[in-house]
Design brief:
This protein has about 425 residues and is α+β, with helices and mostly antiparallel strands. It has helices spanning about 15-20, 30-35, 45, 60-75, 110-115, 125-140, 155-160, 185-200, 210-225, 265-270, 320-330, 355-365, 380-385, and strands spanning about 5, 10, 80, 90-95, 100-110, 115-120, 140, 145-150, 170, 180-185, 205, 235-245, 250, 255, 275-280, 295-300, 300-305, 345-350, 370, 395-400, 410. Strand 4 and strand 5 (about 100-110) form a beta hairpin.
Length: about 425
């Protein structure tokens, strides 16, 4: 079953945590990061190109060196301090009145390579290589990955007992999301958590596929370079926050398209009626009401699109997905978009931005049409991962994102 372990977390003193903790490296560009970064922000470590004027190429050697230099500086300045003993931690996030509680732990790279840590997305080799350089140079997992596991009642009870105490950290970030953090220092509790996870058959990557792959590949590299490898070395493990599946909520991940592939509005609507019941809405925006129902914004009006029977396959974990229905029946068949990863005519909008963002992109003239999708469920994600299937690109959006810099895992000798 899956292997996890406690670790000696590197983290900010309480007085600095709200400043050090940052959004993840991949949710903001360099200009946004430069504008957002204060003196102690972790953005100087995870996006160090912002320390150059002008902003440097994020893949340049000088930027990779700067990341290592900044990580060392943050520790020298006392903005990041390592705990003396190996611990587990609980990290809670609150959004719109809903709180989810994750176990912060280290997972073993062999579980990823063997398929016990299950993925649902493809990764790009160039993105993996970039993250590998950071992990390799830092000898640390600066940012955690976001995992899920099948909820276990005893683990829920342990977490409930831990979070009844005063948290180590408790702050609200600029986006309004709350973050709390507790330490688990009792050895009996730590050992019990480790044993509980030893009985769990699989973990599921929710967010952070490239970071997970990069961390696992660095562990594999270190194993091959060590003739005395035992599998217990610190480099075998990487940082994750693991949430019970029943607490997680996936939000919608929507699509906008630049043109109608040469069709007029009327021709496009006629083409849609082959596979969908098309209903113009008197008011908007229109949010999908269930599986196989879509919202569409076109020429200043909202429509409901309901897929007709035969356009989806509820017995197939991929065929049941609304992203599959939309891709096959609209984006490909009508609009001529064959590859979501490479076609420049399509863009993706996380549901956190709201349906108003879809209206804005179309009303501005930048895009011709927008589609709002019903969110994928956690059970659908698990079914796909368990059957070794891969979701279409840009299918899941988890919110809130993990804050980076609340805790770091180092595998450098001496740490």
């Amino acid at each position: 079953m899956v292997k996890i372990k406690p670790f000696r977390g590197i983290r900010p003193p309480k007085k600095y945590v709200a400043e050090v903790a940052s959004r993840p490296y991949d949710v903001l560009n360099s200009l946004e990061a430069k504008a957002e970064a204060t003196e102690r922000s972790l953005l100087h470590i995870i996006k160090p190109e912002i320390d150059f004027d002008p902003i440097a190429d994020e893949h340049s050697e000088e930027v990779y060196r700067k990341a290592v230099e900044n990580f060392r500086k943050w520790r020298d300045e006392g903005w990041l301090i390592q705990d003396p003993d190996e611990e587990y931690y609980i990290y809670a996030q609150t959004m719109d009145g809903r709180t989810q509680y994750g176990l912060v732990a280290c997972c073993h790279f062999e579980d990823y390579l063997s398929g016990k840590i299950k993925k649902h997305e493809l990764t790009r080799r160039d993105k993996e290589e970039d993250r590998m350089i950071h992990v390799r140079r830092q000898q640390a997992n600066i940012e955690p990955v976001f995992f899920s596991y099948p909820a276990v009642a005893e683990m829920d009870a342990i977490v409930a007992e831990v979070v009844a105490a005063e948290p180590e950290y408790d702050f609200v970030a600029a986006d309004g999301f709350g973050h709390q953090f507790w330490r688990i220092t009792d050895r009996a509790t730590i050992d019990r958590i480790t044993r509980l996870f030893d009985a769990i058959p699989a973990l599921y990557v929710a967010d952070g596929h490239h970071r997970t792959a990069a961390a696992a590949r660095v562990g594999e590299e270190r194993m091959k370079a060590n003739p005395h490898h035992t599998g217990q070395e610190e480099y075998c493990y990487f940082l994750a926050v693991i949430f019970p599946d029943k607490q997680l909520k996936i939000i919608d991940y929507n699509r906008v398209v630049k043109d109608l592939n040469g069709l007029s509005k009327e021709q496009f609507l006629d083409a849609l009626r082959k596979d969908f019941i098309v209903e113009e809405q008197a008011t908007g925006p229109y949010r999908p009401t269930g599986l196989h129902n879509f919202g569409m914004y076109l020429a200043g009006k909202w429509y409901s699109l309901t897929a007709k029977p035969g356009t989806y396959n509820d017995s197939d974990p991929i065929g049941v997905l609304d992203v599959t229905v939309l891709s096959d029946r609209v984006l490909d068949r009508i609009l001529g978009i064959k590859d979501l990863r490479t076609d420049k005519r399509i863009d993706f909008v996380g549901g956190i931005r709201g349906l108003g963002e879809l209206e804005r992109r179309v009303d501005s003239g930048e895009m011709a049409v927008a589609f709002a999708l019903y969110p994928v469920s956690m059970q659908q994600l698990i079914d796909i991962a368990d059957t070794d299937n891969i979701m279409p690109p840009k299918t899941t959006w988890f919110e809130p994102k993990l804050r980076s810099g609340i805790v770091i895992h180092s595998f450098a000798e001496g740490d």
